[in-house]
């Protein structure tokens, strides 16, 4: 899909490839630790890990040496130099696409169409994730999906249905465990043209995704008394705090607020807060505040403009991220990204599968599209991301071809076609 | 919201009631002073027994004195006591200690839109009943391995049944049609599952009231888009914290809503969102409405309904007709101006009042 890389391949330098790799590797280290000016360059963005075998270039590249990799994947936020100055090709990047169930396939098709219209250098690899029983009786995702994900490191996922009483845990949980997706990032920006009582919302919720109240450890102590265990660990708290500050720095966000309930849960949220404070010491350019959960909720519904980046443990994150989604118009227009260890990132739409409108061309692809835009930004392809986002917002603002949930009565294909047209016009 | 058959009638000596007053920190002391002023002015037959609780101390002597005083008097009015979480974890939250020792199991909050206050949503009328003693606030935490902390959330059948009973009886008494249970039973299957099961059991005994349930994240989303759909909501402790703060924000802020904590034998009244308000303390800009309305709720509990309604009407007149608002709801009035206005209106109604 699309044209081959414009820049000359470095295939002729095969014998020099090791030198090339480590040369670029040291360049990464320089960018990581070195000149601060560069780090704040808007061209340099948070991307996946330096796995150059994802590049469709002619030479096979060994993976980055472990020591460097640890440094580079610190907090899951890694820099890649701006593509124009990269020494490797500006070729097609592979993304694993998981269409999902219900309306998943149609909105995935819509997104692919829009990307094609924008001529984005993305090669889609479609995979299916249905739980299969692996050796040893443990449920796992199909090996070809895992292999594709490990290779491409970036995924785009549609809604997956959670079957009740199917014997296996929810697919989302399986994906989370397989790729250690520890951070859930949800940027909530008010959409011009989709009116809600709240305008000017512009905040990001970063939620710890692996532990906390959702550890799933529950016991019946005696008949009638149940205890659920909320687990907070130092490592996970530190990891999420580091990711939050990296995100804030890379996306020019001015402040990070830790949300907690340390007055009641002294030890657990106290630990979380301490780790956030420690990490904040290393990021003096980003303002760090802490606020109680109830104060955040109270102020959020009165004046959401006072918040910027919010970082919090699992349960508060769940509630707050959905609260913020409600502020901008619901799950049908909210993007979401999950960042994992080893540079894996899966972007998804968080709404349900909507089986009642599946296959009827009525679905709204906005959530998946905005998640895909988030993905483009994560990969460093800001131009394409901005182009597609502008086209999408223009279409919604125009109000001529809106899907049913946005207040119009057009079909999904008409909506998509309108966005494609605008994208092409923007070129 | 006192359910008369639940609580014994409060003690009365010489026709005057004695109520424990805990000033707390931040804006608590000044607001409670205003409450006392208004009560004195309206000749309310209530004497306040003031018990100070110093939140900076590590011993529990202060709060135990307060608890004894409340046991003695049966009723209390309190400001929020600050919890400094720089202190060691063995120093528990004083407010929490008070609630669990007195077994004040039900926290009731009534959020309704006031015509005089400008908000994004109108016509909100939600009653929130929140379990007040267990759940995530059990304060049972331990560190088995360094760097790994476990916090226990306890849900018991007895307490869940108790709070569900309370919710449904209150709904019936107030003529409410629908009770919604807020939970997260898809993730915490045993804990919130038990809570939900208890609510369903109690609901079966009240066929005239519709019962449904909603997951907490969906609830918050619905609250910010369509809060008019909710009627009565019942939930465990932590979700209650979130939902009550969201609703308070929807109707205009923490300065407007009073809250009550009911137990079998005791009742403690305070502002619904339990803020210390350290940043606006002693500046004469805090909104006295919440604390004054909490005082009115207390008077209703003591069956001094005439006094309660006269003060309440004066407050609402100030808010809705005179539009004298403090800074938190977008006005320029000071606390003392609002209180003076309330007292003036009480006087103008012709009842017996003391001098200004």
Features:
heterodimer; A: alpha/beta; ten-stranded mixed beta sheet; 39% helix; B: 356 residues; alpha/beta; 19% strand
- Sum up the overall morphology of chain B in one term: globular
Q: Average pLDDT across residues of chain B?
A: 91
Q: Could you give the order of strands across the largest sheet of chain A?
A: 4-3-7-16-15-8-9-14-12-13
Give the proportion of residues in helices of chain B. 25-40%
Neighbour order of strands in the largest sheet of chain B: 2-1-3-12-11-4-5-10-8-9
Task: Give the averaged pLDDT of chain A, no decimals.
Answer: 79
The major sheet of chain B is characterized as:
10 strands, mixed
Low-confidence stretches of chain B: none
Instruction: Tell me the number of helical segments of chain B per DSSP (H or I, 4 or more residues long).
Output: 10
Describe this structure in words.
The complex is a heterodimer of chains A (427) and B (356). Chain A has 427 residues and is an alpha/beta fold. Helix content of chain A is 39%, strand content 21%. Chain A is built from 13 helices and 16 strands. Chain A has helices at residues 17-33, 36-39, 66-72, 104-118, 143-152, 171-179, 234-250, 266-281, 293-302, 314-328, 366-379, 382-398, 412-426; strands at 45-47, 78-80, 93-98, 122-126, 132-133, 139-140, 154-157, 181-189, 202-208, 212-222, 225-233, 255-260, 287-292, 309-312, 335-340, 345-349. In chain A, the strands form four sheets. Chain A has a ten-stranded mixed β-sheet with strand order 4-3-7-16-15-8-9-14-12-13, sandwiched between helices. In chain A, helix 4 packs across helix 11 (366-379), helix 7 packs across helix 8 (266-281) and helix 11 runs antiparallel to helix 12. Chain A is globular and about 55 Å long. The relative contact order of chain A is 0.14. By secondary structure, chain B is α/β, with parallel strands linked by helices. Helices cover 38% and strands 19% of the residues of chain B. In chain B, the strands form two sheets. In chain B, strands 2-1-3-12-11-4-5-10-8-9 form a ten-stranded mixed β-sheet, with helices on both faces. A two-stranded antiparallel ribbon of chain B has the order 6-7. Chain B is built from ten helices and twelve strands. The model of chain B has no long low-confidence stretch (mean pLDDT 91). Chain B: Pfam families: Iso_dh (PF00180). Chain B: Its cofactor is Mn(2+); Mg(2+). Chain B: This is Isocitrate dehydrogenase [NAD] subunit, mitochondrial. Chain B: InterPro entries: IsoCit/isopropylmalate_DH_CS, Isocitrate_DH_NAD, IsoPropMal-DH-like_dom. Chain B: It is found in: Mitochondrion.
């Amino acid at each position: 899909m699309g044209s081959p890389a414009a820049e000359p391949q470095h295939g002729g330098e095969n014998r020099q490839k090791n030198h090339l790799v480590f040369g670029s590797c040291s360049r990464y280290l320089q960018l990581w630790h070195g000149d601060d000016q560069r780090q704040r360059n808007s061209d340099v963005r948070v991307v996946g890990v330096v796995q150059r075998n994802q590049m469709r270039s002619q030479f096979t590249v060994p993976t980055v040496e472990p020591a460097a990799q640890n440094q580079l994947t610190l907090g899951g936020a890694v820099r890649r130099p701006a593509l124009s100055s990269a020494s490797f090709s500006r070729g097609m990047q592979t993304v694993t696409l998981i269409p999902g169930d219900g309306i998943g396939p149609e909105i995935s098709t819509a997104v692919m169409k829009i990307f094609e219209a924008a001529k984005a250098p993305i090669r889609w690899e479609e995979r299916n994730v249905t739980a299969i029983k692996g050796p040893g009786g443990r449920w796992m995702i199909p090996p070809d999906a895992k292999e594709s994900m490990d290779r491409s490191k970036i995924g785009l996922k549609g809604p997956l249905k959670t079957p009740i009483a199917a014997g296996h845990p929810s697919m989302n949980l399986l994906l989370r465990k397989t790729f250690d997706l520890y951070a859930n990032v949800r940027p909530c920006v008010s959409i011009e043209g989709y009116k809600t009582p709240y305008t000017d919302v512009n905040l990001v919720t970063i939620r710890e995704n692996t532990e906390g109240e959702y550890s799933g450890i529950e016991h019946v102590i005696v008949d009638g008394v149940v205890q659920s265990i909320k687990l907070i660990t130092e490592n996970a708290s530190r990891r999420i705090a580091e990711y939050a500050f990296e995100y804030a720095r890379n996306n020019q966000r001015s402040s990070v607020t830790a949300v907690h309930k340390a007055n009641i849960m002294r030890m657990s949220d106290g630990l979380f807060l301490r780790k956030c404070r420690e990490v904040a010491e290393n990021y003096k350019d980003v303002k760090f505040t802490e606020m109680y959960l109830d104060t955040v909720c109270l102020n959020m519904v009165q004046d959401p403009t006072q918040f910027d980046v919010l970082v919090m443990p699992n349960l508060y994150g769940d509630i707050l991220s959905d609260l913020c989604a409600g502020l901008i118009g619901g799950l049908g227009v909210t993007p979401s990204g999950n960042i994992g260890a080893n540079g894996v990132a899966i972007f998804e739409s968080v709404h349900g599968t909507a089986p009642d409108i599946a296959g009827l061309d009525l679905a709204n692809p906005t959530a998946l599209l905005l998640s895909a835009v988030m993905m483009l930004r994560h990969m460093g392809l800001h131009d394409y991301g901005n182009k597609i986002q502008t086209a999408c917002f223009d279409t919604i603002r125009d109000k001529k071809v809106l899907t049913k949930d946005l207040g119009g009565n057009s079909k999904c294909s008409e909506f998509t076609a309108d966005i494609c047209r605008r994208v092409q016009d923007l070129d | 919201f006192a359910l008369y058959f639940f609580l014994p009638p409060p003690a009365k000596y010489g026709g005057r009631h004695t109520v424990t007053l805990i000033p707390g920190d931040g804006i608590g002391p000044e607001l409670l002073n205003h409450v006392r002023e208004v009560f004195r002015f309206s000749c309310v037959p209530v004497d306040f027994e003031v018990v100070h609780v110093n939140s900076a101390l590590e011993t529990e002597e202060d709060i135990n004195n307060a608890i004894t005083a409340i046991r003695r008097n049966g009723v209390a009015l309190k400001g929020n006591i600050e919890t400094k979480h720089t202190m060691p974890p063995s120093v528990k939250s004083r407010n929490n200690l008070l609630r669990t020792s007195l077994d004040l199991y039900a926290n009731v909050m009534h959020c309704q839109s006031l015509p005089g206050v400008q908000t994004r949503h109108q016509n909100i009328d939600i009653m929130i009943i929140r379990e007040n003693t267990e759940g995530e606030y059990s304060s049972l935490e331990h560190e088995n391995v360094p760097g790994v902390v476990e916090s226990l959330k306890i849900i018991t059948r007895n307490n869940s049944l108790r709070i569900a009973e309370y919710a449904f009886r209150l709904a019936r008494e107030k003529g409410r049609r629908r009770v919604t249970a807020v939970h997260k039973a898809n993730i915490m299957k045993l804990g919130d599952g038990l809570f939900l099961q208890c609510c369903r059991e109690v609901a079966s005994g009240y066929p005239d009231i519709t019962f449904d349930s909603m997951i907490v994240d969906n609830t918050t989303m619905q609250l910010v888009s369509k809060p008019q759909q909710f009627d009565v909501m019942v939930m465990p402790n932590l979700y209650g914290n979130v939902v009550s703060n969201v609703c308070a924000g929807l109707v205009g802020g923490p300065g407007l809503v009073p809250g009550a904590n009911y137990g079998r034998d005791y009742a403690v009244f305070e502002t619904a969102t339990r803020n210390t308000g350290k940043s606006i303390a002693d500046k004469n800009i805090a909104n006295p409405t919440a604390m004054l309305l909490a005082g009115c709720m207390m008077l209703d509990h003591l069956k001094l309904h005439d006094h309660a309604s006269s003060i309440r009407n004066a407050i609402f007149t100030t808010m809705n007709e005179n539009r004298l608002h403090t800074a938190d709801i977008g006005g320029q009035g000071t606390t003392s101006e609002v209180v003076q206005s309330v007292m003036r209106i009480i006087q103008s109604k012709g009842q017996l009042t003391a001098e200004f």
